[in-house]
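Issue: copy button drops trailing tokens. Both records pasted manually instead:
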Amino acid sequence: MPRLYDHIDLRVPSLRDAASFYEALLPALGFTRLVDVEDWLQYESTGEPAGAFFGVTESPTHVANENRIAFWAESDGEVDRLAEVALRAGARNVEGPMPYEAGYYAVFFEDPFGNRFEVCHRVVV
């Protein structure tokens, strides 16, 4: 199957205020290689797909909306672990982790600015 995505560029109103949240969350999600890019906090994946990255940059007028970025986890236990990482990092409006429907276990949360995320484990039948 071809690569489905290359990277995520996320905006926050203050990169300085967002740094500690993303420095805790992104490595836990598998973005483990910090890359020096001016005006960005950027982490690359060292696994598959190699080179995929998640970058955060400042846009002072950014306002979060209803979009959500969801990350897949290998197991319900991994969802639980990542939920704990997000909580310790300062996630807001946390819902779960819990089963939402048969074969679907997830946690929903927001970064300190209201950008929405999900970590889920789905049993594919």
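Record 2 (pasted manually too):
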Amino acid sequence: MNTNADLLKELRIDRNATPPPSRRGLWIALAVVVALLLAAAAAWALFGRDRGIEVRTATVQAIGSGGASASVLDATGYVVARRMATVSAKITGKVREVLIEEGQTVEEGEVMATLDPVDADADRALAASQLAAARSQIGGVQARLKEAEVDASRLQALVGRQLVSKSQYDQAVAQRDALRAELATAQRNANVAADRLAIADNGVDNTIVRAPFAGVVTAKAAQPGEIVSPLSAGGGFTRTGIGTIVDMDSLEVEVDVGEAFIGRVKPKMPVEATLNAYPDWKIPAEVIAIIPAADRGKATVKVRIALKQKDPRIVPDMGVRVSFLEAAKPEAAKQPPGVRVPTAAIVQRDGQDVTFALDDEGSHVQQRALKTGLAMGDDRQVLSGLVAGDAVVLDPPEELKDGARVTMAADAEE
């Protein structure tokens, strides 16, 4: 038997045989299984869980919500300030310091700038010296007058006893009266010097520029080192102002209304103003006055309008559109209270009128007890429990409970 030959054949490697599975193949198979499990979980999340009860909804309406005043006339204009000032110095001088910036809020009397006070200080020092000299002169005259009065009194006694001549006494009296007149002149000179000092103090104070009223700085017109003057000096080298301030509480609207339509505008008429910068912001306003003068070139009449709402967003020279509204009708105030709710949304639960309103996310319902009122056709007046804008379920089924999950039916009412 060829036993050794058979054994050698068994030891030979068969290269056509199928190789054993590798480790990489095992990982790929495991990843496929995990992906299938995740897909199954997602499918259950989308289709297997409870999607809630399908319902139709309606929106609660305010009673008389359509009764807003109608516009009888539209116009355009600008925001203006009734109180605005370009602040300047009372004297001509060189700016030493400017203490304001655009957008800064200033109070009445607050220092906005200072001018070089050298000349004003020198003038005040001279006035103070003149006042001191006048007062010292008063002291000298008073001393001499006191002596003259004593001499006159002594000579009066002596002349009565004929110890001195009458002429000597008369001379002493004249001297006394002259000094009295001189004292009065010196006192008046002192008063004049005091007034002159007060004027010099005003001159020093005029080098300080203060805010005439509280407001907001909208422009800064001068810089340190420039010359400012209350009057234009020409040449472009002299400023006429330090800055401009606006009293934001005095903002109003001015519009030009065509002559053909001015008859529709009345004082105290309600107005709705809309700034061009904020088209979705409706500002309540009212007519202040109709200016009794027409523009011949434009055939318009100017109308002043007061803004009833103050806001930092409102600034001078903004463009604005206004709608003049007709006055509210008296019967509008007699509208019944509450809101209008479709009768189909009101059901009985435990002997009480209730409705099911959607929550803020619109995915669950809240059971709300209602206090109902009058019937209004297909609707019902609800005095409490709902507000305008709430979404309520129409024809709620018996299985619908407080907190239940809902979905909108395909034909759900918007």
